[in-house]
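Exam revision sheet. Question 4 asks you to relate a sequence to its structure. Input first:
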Amino acid sequence: MDNISFSDLLGSLWGITLVVAFFGGSIFVHELGHFLAARKRGLKIERFSIGFGPRLFGWTGKDGVDYRVSIIPLGGYVALPQLADMEGIEGASSEEAEKLPKISYADKMIVSVMGAVFNVIFAFALACILWFTGMPVAEGTSSTVIGYVPEQVVTSSDHLAELGLGNTVPGPAYKAGLRSGDKVLSVDDNMVTNFSQIIEAVMLGNRKDSQGNPTATFKVERDGKELEFVVQPARIELNSKSGDKVRMAGLQPRTEVRVGATAAGSPAEKAGLKAGDRILSVDGYPLNNTVEFRELLRKGGAKPRTLLIEQADGVSAKIVVTPQATTTVNPVSIIAYGEGKRHWLILVPATRDLLTKDGTAVRDQLMVLGISPEDPALAETLKIGTIIDKVDGREQIVAVRSLKALVEAVGLTPRDLTVYWKRANGDAGNLTLTKAQSVDKQPVRHAQIGISYATRPELAYRNPWETCMGIVKSTFTTLGRLFDRGSDIQVKQLASVISITKTYYNISEDIRRVLWFTVLINLNLAVLNLLPIPVLDGGHMLIATIQRFTKGVLSNKAVIILQYTFMALLLSLMAYIILHDVRRCSGDSELQLKQQLLERHVYKAQDFGAKK
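Answer key, structure tokens:
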């Protein structure tokens, strides 16, 4: 097990502190709104709880209120027996509600709505702070100018592009006619003012053509003219475990192409490029994005290219650089198996902590990097990181310690192949792959000049009113798409407390991002709690209104039945969302492990020493 550094420990503690302070604080603010309103209106208050279920700790105040933190961190409540019978969630009341004074319709409405009101006030206050400090955003996302339109887009989360593997489709935006430099004005008749809104509009889109394919209508400005394009977004898999898929058009924002550093002996160094230089064009073609520049180099191959650059001191110059064709990854081995080579088992040479006399690392194990497309039958057995140390050769069991040995043992003719596996925890076994054969797949070679790229951080100073209204609008749109057959948004894609906590932890290094996410959480809490569903605040308001303007339609017994019924439905929905969130976290962990294996065993430093 790797040692945990002091800085890692501090980072973990800081992340946990932020979760408690801001996520827990958001729940506290909501319940505080109910609490203060109930006290102002003279209602009986029994408990103020953060969380549900049995009491973890707390105290009883001089006012007789039980202030507590409960064991299930899925929200909170203020126990108000005069408002509604919530014994199923909040626990039994110490007094019978019938013996307490009746409260007015105004009392019920004011107390119910004030939780959401406090969340809105809190969110707006935080948005005002961000308006003053600025919100860090990715370079180029403050505008709607397109920087790069890829001709191909990846459709799966386990894509290994540098190895020449993965599922791709023609770029939807490129196929429709959108190009670098276009300024997007609207998507599906919704005006957009930043690049994040473009991505969101496509993702939440619900339009389809006559064949049932998703569509998105882009209105753009090009050379002073307004043009309209109908894009057919691709469905991109974000997580193989949860199966989350979203619509994506295949667009990237406009960014500067600025040199961060040059590799020793590289074409860029020889041509005179230096850190801080900004590359404006290549062979007269204006550049709008770093990926676009790399793609232009790749397509052009190892031929001289003329770059127009702006040096750090502001002086413009033209230089000629000749890219070198090279690969950034080590070779891998692939065993195709199943009917029609349905699955690819991808293996990489794993570097052990051993060095030869000349100081090079020993590669004498073959490790599973993944199966593409995923094979549910073997997902748990041949999981990422599993070692394949022996296979059933043509005449005997053969130990495999290199890619060459594996290729020779497996062969190029399809046959049933037994592979022997083991893991670091001591587990071992074997299994048979049907119609298996070795597949030759060479790493992708790119024309490169040997530079890293510098990014320019941006701060967005957005009006707090516009920030809050944008989030509220997005929340209502998302809720609507859940019930729209034309949309690809599903209930299982909603975030539970697990994803919320994980997000807080991941953004804990920048307090401004934490503040923005807290704005989002509070406005979502406000909207969701005001939905007219029994158990929620909006449900209390709906029931109170029905009882106010009708006589005898909803008796107290009927209200209790409604509360219990919808409580069961709500808890079932939360359990369903949490289940998929657990799967999502599993998929994220798998992707993280895959990235670590890639960086350690597959990716290699560029070497521009002698040409090979």
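Marking note for examiners. DSSP finds 13 helices and 30 strands in the chain.
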